Please model this.
Amino acid sequence: MRSTVGRVKIRNGSLALHVAEDGDPLAPPILLMHGITMSGGTWGWFVPTLAERFRVLRLDFRGHGESDRAPGEYFPGGYVSDAVAAIEQAAGRPCIVMGHSLGGATAAALAQQHPDLVVAAVMEDPPLGLAGNPNVDAVDAAGGAGDDTMLDGNSLLEAFRVIRESAPQLQSSGITAAVLEGVLAAAPTASGGTLGELLHPDGIASMAGALLTLDASVLDPVLTGTISSFLDREKPFQVPSLIVCADPSKPDAVADPALAQHFASISPTTEVVVLDGAGHLIHDERASRHEFRSVALAFIDRVTSAPS
Model:
């Protein structure tokens, strides 16, 4: 298999977006999408495995990583359009999409709105019901699923407030990524212990690098409650989909398993897995990365081996 490592620049209107490329350029494509405040680097640990079978594309959303900043344009429609641009211009054909958090919600939106571009979708602890409207009904009439409106009570909110204030200061201070890694590793977590104890070292490293390139205003719609939902709650996912939920007992868990099951109930080819003990940063956590990897690869094996 011929392997390549490249950097692709694509356009979405006036924005230049960065896509990292690995693997055989003739292999089927898979698009990986990161969570808010992160970058495509968060998937570096998974690339060698996926590149054995796929052309692996890692998108930096607007305001993140090496992509252009877009102040005032950090809303669901913009992120979904970034992903569409990556599929159309970098992948060049329908592909599997996999995303964490923000990337997971974007994958879900693609599965609803752009099934012609998606072979299958993997969503890692996605905010399926996140919306800024506090008047959204907290109970889904069809399935009794709750709504994670504005992440009320979630420990991520305090983390986002800290990042919103500190990221610009870190960037202007000239701190190196290596030094920031040490600072982050020593930081306490809401579940107890430190980030260094919770996460793989490469997860800490990708987090540090992402914070030094982040437009911190990406967090404003979440913190002010003006973010809108990515999804139509009554529209099914139109491609095979996997929703991987963090343990709902964890203070930073985002995906509501009841809401995930609601989507599964109206989407015949959607599966839901809840990982006991896993927090929101599932694939970076020492205790849950292997399980996420196994679940995701098993799903990909099923959808790629199924008769067309």
